[in-house]
Predict the 3D structure of the following.
Amino acid sequence: MPTIVNFTIKKDGSGSYTSIKAAVVAQAKDLVAADELHRFTITGTGWNSTTPLSETFIDFNSYTTDATRRVEFIVEVADRHDFTGGSGFVFTIPSSFGFVLRSEFVTLDGFEISNTTGTSGVFNNADSVNTLLKNTIVFNIAGGGAFQGDGENNIHWGYTGQASNTNLFYLNGTATNVTCIQLTGEGGFNGDIGLRDVDCENVALYSDNNAGNDQYFSCTGDYNAANKADSNPPGANSFETMVSGDFVNFAGLDYRSALGGALETSGLGGTFIGGNLETSSGISVTALLNSNYMIEYNMKKNVASQSIGAQMITIADGSDFTGTVAVEVTIDGGTKTAGGGSVTHEGEGYHSYGPTQAETNGNHIAVSFAGTGALTQTIQVYTAFPQTVDNNTKIALIPTTAMRGTDSANTVVPPSVAQFNARTIVSADYFLVADYTAPDNTSITSILADTNELQTNQGNWLTATGFSTSVEVAALNDISVTDILTTQMTESYAGDGTAPTLAQSLFLTMQNLQDFSYTGTTQTVKKLDGSTTAATYTLNDAVTPTSKTRVS
């Protein structure tokens, strides 16, 4: 696929260019060699019937193109005409030719080309059938100028000075969904021919010129229409009975195919014939889709003071419906009945309804909103059981003070002893021998003897200077601080996972600080002899460790 290169054309100078001709002159190149498609988007703001974009002799000959590497000029959709004159971006040709096209592949999309004066022709493309003209209206053309190429969804009218076969509406190529209007006083090749050597489908050719020959087509194709006998619209399913009433407003120069006219459903596949179909004045498909929205309601079951709503649409034009709305309610597939609550228009077509408590007492609730001239809306919900807060009146009945026999909130009178005994069941079943274990009297006696001895000797524990001690304890009092600090300890290390003695803990800590080595992620701690392993650890990283774990 070719690379799409985008440009903009704007009157205010904020785009890439301010005219079509300047864009073509600046960007023309061999698009086939560059493998590019040039797309120029025209913003029509400021270019209208009063101040049109007026240019002449826009020559595409410096471009080299093919079917996929082509040049496109596309008017922004928001700035296009509505297939009536002066309703969008306007392009005029003050003199000479407008678009000079030879063999180049060029697309013109969304143009209004109108009110030319002193013009040799709109198009000079005698050697080209590669141009695509679409969504365009061309009217009030002095000097004619047949279009040679492919036309899609176009309307042409008001051509004057058609004196030769180069000044037809269409010459060669194809025409699909095109309308061509010959007004009184206009003529063409052989009098009033409008299209020649064209493959036509869904084309309407209407002549308001009663003079000259009744020959409008010299083409092939199917599903075409004309308004005069012997006009010979080409192909099957074509007809000659079209009337001016088949257009939206013939006298008002609105040549779109009218809804309800002969052109509306007579085209290929039941589509319309002509350049464009009248917009429906009723509700649009978009409005219908927008009105049939889905809302997730979760109403509470059998609870009052709730609300449900629907956006109401006017059938005639798709606008917000602000009239009177009535509601009907269906509960669990039962009979639809008039709502007992109130309906309120909240604004901009949105209507809310406050159902009664009884109308929420079901598992599936359907609320239908209807109004005269409005699209009926039915909102369906599945209810949920009330939340705890919905029972707050019952929660409030629980007293806030502790319930004791003396509390006023406690209305239960404690039973008397006699009443309690009367309600107590005494049964041998509560004292099963199998569940009884006799006490260890021997152990109990031994504990009692030891306790008595302690009580007997407690008078000997205290002396005039403190507690009396045994010989062993007295010997301990002969150890000095010097003895503790200068006596060598026996080297010893606790195993991994074993609780150490004080000496073992000190030795391992000391050797961790002064005698160790690393190999990869292994740290080895040596004993005092510097060679025997005291413990090993595994590091989490050989270069920048942040933790280690003892493994032996």
Summary: Residues 105 and 130 are 5 Å apart (CA to CA). The two ends are 69 Å apart (CA to CA). The chain has a mean pLDDT of 83.
